[in-house]
Amino acid sequence: MTETKSQAELRVHAAEGDERENAQERIVELREQILAHLISKTGRDRSSASTRDWFLATALTVRDRIVERWIDSKQESFDQGQRRVYYLSLEFLIGRLLMDSLNNLGLTASVREALSGLDVDLEELREIEPDAALGNGGLGRLAACFMESMATLSVAAYGYGIRYDHGLFRQAIKDGWQHEYPEDWLAFGNPWEFPRPEIEYEIGFGGSVEAKADGRAAQIWKPNEIVEAVAYDTPVAGWRGASVNTLRLWRSRAPDPLRLDVFNAGDYVAAQADQVRAESISKVLYPSDSTPAGLELRLRQEYFFAAASLKDLIRRHLAQHGDITTLAEKNAIQLNDTHPAIAIAEMMRLLVDVYALEWDEAWRITQQTFSYTNHTLLPEALESWAVPLMERLLPRHMQIIYLINALHLDRLRSAGHHDWGLLSSVSLIDEHSGRRVRMGTLAFLGSHKVNGVSQLHTDLMKETVFRDLHSLYPDRIVNKTNGITFRRWLFEANPGLTRLISETIGPAFLDDPEALRKLEAVAADKEFQARAMSVKQKNKEALAKIITDRLLIKVDPDALFDVHVKRIHEYKRQLLNVLETIACYNDIRAHPTKDFVPRVKIFAGKAAASYHQAKLIIKMIHDVGRVINNDPSVRGLLKVVFLPNFCVSLAERIIPASDLSEQISTAGMEASGTGNMKFALNGALTIGTLDGANVELRERVGDENIFIFGLTAEEVQNHRAQGIDARATIAGSPVLKDVLDSLASGVFSHDDRDRYKQLVDILTYHDHFMVTADFDAYCEAQRLADIRWRDRKSWWRSSILNTARVGWFSSDRTIAEYAEDIWRVPVRTVSKS
């Protein structure tokens, strides 16, 4: 019988009514669970609960929803015998998890309403959650994005890292200078993690090595120090709860936390010395390596987490499959940079010494299991360790590295390679710098695939840091351009824009980022542009309030927000931005009748604790800002602000409010960058060099929707080959000369007129990062941005096209490529709602 229109309407209304009823029941259930957790976990009721108590109760309620799927995901992986991926990274810049989890589980609106009925504001809970700053920048944030995408695509995966007591330091600014303080993210506990005290492994250091009597390559290592690695698990939920994977972080502890005999003898400090030494391994992310003790601690950290992770995954493999020889068939290990590269030698030690495999079979399994992601073209950033330190701390591993190297060089000589220069270049031991182990070479030789993180980076990697290795193993290096998770960097960070896009082109882009392409059809539409401008304006007003509240500096939300936020480093060239800022300041004062585009220059980022030059750049930003912001002749046309303690949650506020994205690293020095993708996704136009993923970003958004300037990577190399004395360049640029003269003479440092003299001398005589060479081109690109900003219709068309055309930069796409080309595991299509 055919259904009439009236019957169909009644059926739809009934379904909608059922859905509303179910939604209301879900809200009531969530409210009851939150109240139950509040009482049982905090020991308080509604009348006495603090905001932190409500956060804990809400987080535990959300965690309950994740755990069910987590258990199911692990069981599915086990039942299907899937090949597992293990992602080893010294950094996981996780950030806050409450909104991320709510967003991925589709619970944000329900939990918001449930809390509202309890007179609790979800936004207040969001702000009180500490940032898990277990990373330094892009590399750690990439690892976090990848974990989420692996769960979204149902790749059975574990992330392995260190549970640092103190992540990246908390940055405070005093009189313009950076000061570092411990970031105590665990002060109030971590509701997302599950301690696993029953999962612990003994990790050895030092000692001696004895040969076995059977004539095999196996040896007996007898460490003289033992540290225990204890597991803490955090579930990582994929989009729409597709699956839930595990981030397992290791905490170090001493086997005997207290020497009771020494304590009873009255030496209370010495009685705890072993505990302090052991726990220092997981105490701080990136301890300063400027001292021998700091270097040793860094190496101890790297081996500690790599060794614990390998023991754990081998235990899991044997429990399920029972045969160590099938390890490579069932497991893929990805090394995120060289920090975990010692895992190559540790795997060989385990297979040969513990599981009694022959050397050649062990090496085959190792190579087929491991792959390595390179993140740098800076030779000094490719880790190397002094041989004496390795021999003292990891004597068996040093033996293994020597043997890997000898067999590697023997094979090359047997194949007819006798050039001493080539053999020296590809040797695991660098004989030119006091004999050091090249960890990048170890990672390369021990892996079946080595990938760069943007097409330019990969191409340059073949020509520079791994040129000779690439000539010998031409099929090993592949490209996997980085991506970002749109769930955090659009849906969560910019809900206003997300709603607008959904109302305009439908919700398909929530599951398929490439569907953002449909926005191209409305890029020039006046009504849509006006709505997009309204969303951006609200985001800018929110950021302006943060600036006022934290810095007591008032900025105009109608001005162009020109944003440069990333780690402070000379190659990222915050200095170039500051010099151009001074040039703008000089221009405003010299031409009071000229029509200038009002700008707010927004900086944020941390300098490594021992990086003096980077800290000096932070001081310069503050000095320049103080002069400009307090000069009445500027009339508010230019403001300079530095937001301290840059972190994931602050980035989530800055990026959606940005108009212009600064991606101005020296060409050929940025491996990829992911900030460029986040800004473009949120509609900021990029001003940048042809470096890292900027090259692919330009290809996708179009030349007319990005401001590219400066030397190419090849031109930078040619300039350096000709010399980096910049006197002629400076003499040919009156604007630059005036800027440098004002810096050197103390115009911006009245309390210490010589503060920037040495820095100006470096730019003049040793401009390695091509700041002066790119200065005029950068200024010209900024003036083109001014022209575009005045043509608001053109600016907003470009802004919308940036959002529309960056779907390819999703980390889901990147992970799918890893899965197919490197890990050889299947991925599941993201389910549509």
Automatic annotation (TrEMBL):
<dbReference type="GO" id="GO:0030170">
    <property type="term" value="F:pyridoxal phosphate binding"/>
</dbReference>
<keyword id="KW-0021">Allosteric enzyme</keyword>
<keyword id="KW-0963">Cytoplasm</keyword>
<dbReference type="GO" id="GO:0005737">
    <property type="term" value="C:cytoplasm"/>
</dbReference>
<dbReference type="InterPro" id="IPR011833">
    <property type="entry name" value="Glycg_phsphrylas"/>
</dbReference>
<keyword id="KW-0808">Transferase</keyword>
<feature type="modified residue" description="N6-(pyridoxal phosphate)lysine">
    <location>
        <position position="678"/>
    </location>
</feature>
<keyword id="KW-0119">Carbohydrate metabolism</keyword>
<dbReference type="Pfam" id="PF00343">
    <property type="entry name" value="Phosphorylase"/>
</dbReference>
<dbReference type="GO" id="GO:0008184">
    <property type="term" value="F:glycogen phosphorylase activity"/>
</dbReference>
<keyword id="KW-0663">Pyridoxal phosphate</keyword>
<dbReference type="GO" id="GO:0005980">
    <property type="term" value="P:glycogen catabolic process"/>
</dbReference>
<protein>
    <recommendedName>
        <fullName>Alpha-1,4 glucan phosphorylase</fullName>
        <ecNumber>2.4.1.1</ecNumber>
    </recommendedName>
</protein>
<keyword id="KW-0328">Glycosyltransferase</keyword>
<dbReference type="InterPro" id="IPR035090">
    <property type="entry name" value="Pyridoxal_P_attach_site"/>
</dbReference>
<comment type="function">
    <text>Allosteric enzyme that catalyzes the rate-limiting step in glycogen catabolism, the phosphorolytic cleavage of glycogen to produce glucose-1-phosphate, and plays a central role in maintaining cellular and organismal glucose homeostasis.</text>
</comment>
<comment type="function">
    <text>Phosphorylase is an important allosteric enzyme in carbohydrate metabolism. Enzymes from different sources differ in their regulatory mechanisms and in their natural substrates. However, all known phosphorylases share catalytic and structural properties.</text>
</comment>
<dbReference type="InterPro" id="IPR000811">
    <property type="entry name" value="Glyco_trans_35"/>
</dbReference>
<comment type="similarity">
    <text>Belongs to the glycogen phosphorylase family.</text>
</comment>
